[in-house]
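To: structure subgroup
Subject: Chain for Friday's discussion

All,

I'm putting the inputs and outputs inline so they're searchable in the archive.
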Amino acid sequence: MPFPEQRPRRLRRTAALRELARETRLVPADLIDALFVVEGSGVREPIAAMPGVFRLSVDQLGDEAKRIADLGLGGVILFGIPAHKDALGTGAYDADGVVQRAIRAMKKATPELLVIADVCLCEYTDHGHCGVWDGQSVHNDETLPLLARTAVAAAEAGADVVAPSDMMDGRVRAIRSALDAAQLEDTVILSYAAKYASAFYGPFREAAESAPQSGDRRGYQMDPGNAREALAEIETDLAEGADLVMVKPALPCLDVVRAARERITAPLLAYQVSGEYSMLQAAIERGWLESPRAIDESLLAIRRAGADRIVSYFAKDFARRHRG
């Protein structure tokens, strides 16, 4: 009906009415925390480029797991930083590697906590690339067995979900086959199916000490100009055996999140990456944006676009403020 009969502002007049009419809601269980794990003991090292985020040693993770569970978050994803790196990233698939020990520590402390293991070689290689590097390019097919070994090692340590983030072709099928062969057929695969070669990863690379020593990752991560390709990647990974898929980064790719949500029925995640986090934190610190409203609005936008779950470094902050 035309004005004056139709007055949408009626439902905006009070907080109670706005709550009644709200279409999209976000609760702590919708968020997944991300942790950086290092060797040593007693380590809780601030990351300069990511205020409020720390590198933690394995002995800190039992208490951290309890905090995450008590906050009602939807889980945690782990990134490892080994003491030693080499050309083939052997620390990624070492049964006693830093992430494998981290998984065991968190599961021992809080068995019910959902633990996701990132599956990639970039944090473990001395050249900083996500696979076997010859100085010019990453060899796709030679990388697949190493990724499969990494996924199996994480699953054997107790990870509920393994999350390949490397963007090699065929990695989901290789990982699914390896998990099944190791009688780990119940392990879930979360594929970073649409991972762009984004400028928003810089703070992560500092945190994880994973910046490429030469070249860049545009030869295997997606071109930011492509959306149809993202949908094709998602459908391919689901066909290869992925149970969940993810879009990364989140805020610059809300159109992709929405398009994927309209195309697929599988659970869809989005990763609010380090650059998104640090950008907001920097503006908040300078008084240019209002906290916590800017944080909550950024997360709500990702949820509204269609993400079922969001990986975010704001997860604990949000949960502390929104616990039931």
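Points worth raising on Friday:
The radius of gyration is 20 Å.
DSSP finds eleven helices and twelve strands in the chain.

D.
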